[in-house]
Design goal:
- By secondary structure, the chain is an alpha/beta fold.
- It has 2 domains: 3-115 and 298-326, Medium-chain alcohol dehydrogenases, catalytic domain (Quinone Oxidoreductase, Chain A, domain 1, Alpha-Beta Complex); 129-268, Rossmann fold (3-Layer(aba) Sandwich), CATH 3.40.50.
- The protein is 28% helix and 28% strand.
- The protein has helices at 44-51, 121-143, 161-172, 187-193, 225-233, 257-261, 276-289, 292-297, 307-315; strands at 3-12, 15-24, 33-41, 62-63, 67-75, 85-89, 105-107, 113-114, 153-155, 177-181, 197-200, 216-221, 235-243, 265-268, 299-303, 322-326.
- The strands form 3 sheets. Strands 3, 5, 6, 7, 8, 15 and 16 form a 7-stranded mixed sheet that branches. The protein has a 6-stranded parallel sheet with strand order 11-10-9-12-13-14, sandwiched between helices. Strands 2-1-4 form a 3-stranded antiparallel sheet, covered by helices on one side.
- Helix 4 (187-193) links the parallel strand 10 and strand 11.
- The longest helix is centred in the middle third of the chain and has 23 residues, at 121-143.
């Protein structure tokens, strides 16, 4: 019998429990590639799963963790062989399929992306689902015609994981970035990532007007709800907003006015089931378009044993930037 360490979420009569414990390899789920995870990360969704604040987990027991980067141990999939360095983001990890906070994982080969040549496994998890989602959002804005010459762009939740990477990416690509945050003490941090202006989150929290003064050509929103409604109402004619998060809620108290009177586009961003060609494009862009020094500046590291204690902090806004998890 072979066991390994994993963060396991379970549910009984007393409710949900979570612990770092031994897990039996024979209880891993079906898959044609077995990976030795070396690094992971903590995303907002990981915080929800571990704390049980939202019904993220769909089966029990469940190994937590949305993201992994590591080395293939064995494979029957034609694209992968032992020794390959791989990334896995989403695809139901920690929801319907045993996840990444473990010393061993078994997944489907079609879920995997190769670690870019100039990146380490740690680099890719400093990016993680949050940063990969930010890149998908930037690509969507580009395809919608939101280019740097069209005017400034706003990033909400800018001190968080998605927001931090989005600010760094957009700034490097030549955009004038307005960083919205409820943490004024992070102004220097955000300017270091490339933000040209800091906007107090309170300016986007009031009851949204159908149309407000035009302020930006587009944006990346990881907050949702009233914040997104206000961002849309202030978007310039022909602009676009990429929506990729719901930290403030799933509702959208907006009107159709921005869409039919200003031609604004609302771009939905999904990272979980995103098709493989788009994933590969995003990771290729991240390799070239994300400043590694800025990535390092926004990243802190913890051990697998610290994940459970860190999860509530990401939900309360107590985490800045990105966290990498050393599996060990």
């Amino acid at each position: 019998m072979t066991t390994f360490k994993a963060i396991v979420i379970d549910k009984g009569e007393a409710g949900q429990s979570v612990a770092l414990k031994d897990f039996d390899e024979k209880d891993l789920m079906e898959g044609d590639v077995t990976v030795r995870p070396e690094w992971s990360t903590i995303n907002y969704k990981d915080g929800l799963a571990i704390t049980g604040k939202a019904p993220v987990v769909r089966r029990f027991p469940m190994i937590a963790g949305l993201d992994l980067a590591g080395t293939v141990e064995n494979s029957s999939h034609p694209d992968w062989k032992a020794g390959d360095r791989v990334i896995c983001n989403g695809w139901g990890l920690s929801e319907t399929h045993l996840g990444a906070y473990a010393q061993k994982a078994r997944v489907k080969g079609q879920w995997l992306v190769r670690v870019p040549e100039t990146m380490s496994a740690r680099d890719t998890m400093a990016i993680g689902t949050a940063g990969y989602t930010a890149m998908l959002s930037v690509i969507a804005l580009e395809r919608a015609g939101v280019t740097p010459d069209k005017g400034p762009v706003i990033v909400t939740g800018s001190a968080g994981g998605v927001g931090s990477v989005a600010v760094a990416l957009l700034a490097k690509l030549g955009y004038q970035v307005i960083a919205s945050t409820g943490r004024p003490q992070e102004a220097d941090y955000l300017k270091g990532l490339g933000a040209a202006e800091i906007l107090d989150r309170k300016e986007l929290e009031g009851p949204p007007k159908p149309l407000a003064k035009e302020r930006w050509a587009g944006g990346v929103d990881s907050v949702g709800s009233t914040t997104l409604a206000n961002v849309l109402s202030m978007t310039r004619y022909g602009g676009a907003v990429a929506a990729c998060g719901l930290a403030a809620g799933m509702d959208l108290p907006a009107s159709v006015a921005p869409f039919i009177l200003r031609g604004v586009s609302l771009l939905g961003i999904d990272s979980v089931m995103c098709p493989l060609p788009r994933r590969k494009e995003a990771w290729k862009r991240l390799e070239t378009d994300l400043d590694r020094a800025k990535l390092a500046a926004m990243t802190t590291e913890i051990a697998l044993s610290e994940v459970i204690g860190t999860a509530p902090k990401i939900l309360s806004g107590g985490v800045r930037g990105r966290i990498v998890v050393k599996i060990g």
